[in-house]
Amino acid sequence: MPQPRSALKLASCAALALAVLAPAPALARDSARDKGLAEIEGRLSDPDTQQAMGDALAGMMAALLDMKAAPFTKAMDKMGKSMGGRPMARNIPDDATLGDLAGPDARRAPAKIARQVPQMMGAMGAMTGVMQEMLPQLEEMGKRMGEQMGKSIERAEQRADRDQD
Question: Could you tell me which residues come within 8 angstroms of residue 117 by beta carbon, excluding any fewer than 6 positions away?
Fold first, then answer.
């Protein structure tokens, strides 16, 4: 009968092995996964999708910058939030927007977003393609790690048996 300490070591090794090997089935190649990655890569790399996403996010930023600031700060004051011990809404004109408070550079943010989102999506598409190309190597790494963990668990069991004697 194993001693509690040896059993704990064995359980720890087994838990570590499970944590390391749990993702291994996800790395198994099949055509459905390959098609899924290719579809994701295609969507991220599609100029029309990139442009649409850039425009949508730029529009959201523009709408956020056009929001009136005073109602927001008044609501914050009601919740008991203050800046430097003074209510925030006191010094903000009723017609001020979040863009006004953010400063003149904030007005350029929507255009910057519209330019940068397509570039970022293109980079993400390229990374997806690289990951797809790396899958065989990742699978081999997972297999080797699994073999090594099996050997480590076997050695731990042998040590536990020796400790028992």
Answer: 50, 53, 54, 57, 58
Which residues face 97 on adjacent strands? 68
Angle at the Cα of 47 from the Cα atoms of 41 and 50, rounded to 5 degrees = 80
pLDDT (tens, 9 = 90+) of the chain, 165 residues, equals: 444 444 455 554 455 444 544 554 555 555 556 677 788 888 889 999 999 999 999 999 999 899 998 887 777 777 765 556 666 666 788 888 989 888 888 889 999 999 999 999 999 888 888 888 888 888 889 899 999 988 999 898 888 888 887
